[in-house]
Each structure stands twice: as structure tokens, then as C-alpha cells.
Amino acid sequence: MIKKKAILVVLMLVCVLSLSACGGYDFEETGTEIILAETALDMMDDEEVVLVDAQKNSTYMKQHIQGAVNIERSDIVVSEPFPNMLAPKKDIEKILGKAGISNDSTVIIYDNNNNMDAARLWWTMKFYGHDSVKVISGGFNALIEKGADTAEGDETRSSAKYTINESNDQMIATLDDVMAQINNPKDNVKLLDVRSTEEYEEGTIPTSIHIDYITNNYEDGTYRNVQDIQIKYVEQDIKPEDTIIMYCKTSIRAAQTYLALYNAGYRDLKLYDGAWIEYSSDPSLPVQYPDGEAPVKPNIQDQS
């Protein structure tokens, strides 16, 4: 009996702490963008649903979830003036139509890369006005665990007509937006560096808060649930009423954070698409070193 009471007290304490961390904040609708693998499997029989594999094409060709078409990162980005920038409207229309996606399609996306490539495609489609698009939490491995069948080689759907009628420029930030915050900081604007700790310590954009994107996931690679994300970010003084400008090296990882926050009820979110690559390319711009000293040797990482 004593043991049961102790467990009950612990559970109540956890509830109180959770409520106090996020209580009083005005989050928008939650849980709208990230779906579980079992939910995705239930959706696949619908003819209007297109399953998209966001892995590299070479990986896709070796093994993918049966029925999935492939849209890899290189299909949706351009490398000018900086790597992994948002591709223009005409390129996105072409690649989506070729994949058999129409404006009426419901698109569900997975990857095998910590949810970052699926999130980047999700962000791209949202930016260009496609509302019915979801990311499968945990991607390929989660689907396999739930019994999804796999296939090899290429799979195609009949091509479709895809037309982009609008774009949401509020979802993107420029260097000017970042500099405005550096030069005239506002309490309700937060710069968010989602790179690794090692990258952050080698230099960051002044005033940035550091939260490594990978911590949005549980150890099994699935996204943390809504409440965990809310608590995590509120504890770092990132509130739902804030304007949040996030970046990494080339803002692929930042898209994963963008999705985590949007799904948790944050809405005033902006991806700095030029990212650290653009910012650090100008030696005249100020750089903040968290330990107070510049690194002797830069740590080159193959992350985006």
C-alpha cells in the first residue's frame, strides 16, 4: 500500500510540474502534422494518399516501403547562392507532379535520417501552400517495426498536374531579419541555433539559444510527444507567442525543429534558409563564442 501511494505521489508531482511548465501559454492546435507509423499504414489504402520516401535515391532503390515514391533532398533544393536553399516554384511543381502528387493529394512522408529530410519536404510543401501533408514519426524504421512491407527498385505513379498558387513568405527568414534582431533585440523574437553542441561552441549568431535538433527525438528515432516538446522549449524561454527564427548549417536540421514546434502548437516560426553557411561567409558579421574564445581549428561536419 505504501509503495502504491509513493507511485501515486510521484505521478501527481510529474503532472503538476508539466502543467506548471506550460500552463498559462496560448498554444495553437497541436498534433496536426506528425503521425504515428500505425496511422500511416491505415491511410495507405486511400487512393488520394501518396506515400513519399525522402531518403537518398540510392538508398531508396535498395529498399523502401512498398508503394512509396521517392523525392530526395536534392530534388527540392538549389545550391545557389548557398547550399540547400529552397528551390523555386517551377522546380517544386515539376517534382511533385512527376511523383504523382496533385493539389488534392494527401502526402505522408518518411525518411531514415532523424526525421530531418521528411521535415524539410513537409516545410517546402507547406511554404508553397499544400496543407494536407504529414510526417511519419520515426520514419522507415518505425514503419518496419509496425509491419510495413518493403520493395526494391523504382516505383512510379501516373504523373499529375501540380500548380502552386501561393507561397507563405512568413515561414522564411532572411539575413536582414536576423541582423534586425542582432542590432535591435526584441524580447519576443528568439534566434534558435539547432546545430550540435560542438558546432555551437565554435561560433554562433549573437543572442542565439542553442537546442540541438536531435533532442526533439526519443532514442528510438521517433519525435517527442507534444507535451515533451512544449515543456522542453518553454523551459528554455521559447514561448508560443514568440517569433522564432531557427537555423543550422544549411537549415535542413532546422526544418526538423520547425516541424516539432509547429506540431506542438507554435505558429510564429521562421526558417533562416541561408543559415550558418550564409551568415559565416561574411567575416564582417559578429560571431558569439559561448566559451568566450574562438576555436583554434574549425570542426568540419558533414551535417546540413
Could you characterize what this model shows?
It contains twelve helices and 14 strands. The N and C termini lie far apart (53 Å). The longest helix has 21 residues, at 2-22. It has a five-stranded parallel sheet with strand order 1-8-7-2-4, sandwiched between helices. Helix 6 (116-127) crosses helix 11. By secondary structure, it is α/β, with parallel strands linked by helices. It has helices at 2-22, 37-43, 57-62, 73-76, 89-98, 116-127, 139-145, 175-183, 197-201, 226-234, 253-263, 275-280; strands at 34-35, 49-53, 64-65, 69-70, 77-78, 85-86, 106-110, 133-136, 150-151, 172-173, 189-193, 209-210, 243-247, 269-272.
The oligomerization state is single chain
Tell me how many strands there are. 14
| Morphology call | globular
Q: What profile does the largest beta sheet have?
A: 5 strands, parallel
Q: Measured on Cα atoms, how large is the radius of gyration?
A: 20 Å
Neighbour order of strands in the largest sheet: 1-8-7-2-4
Specify the helix fraction band. Answer: 25-40%
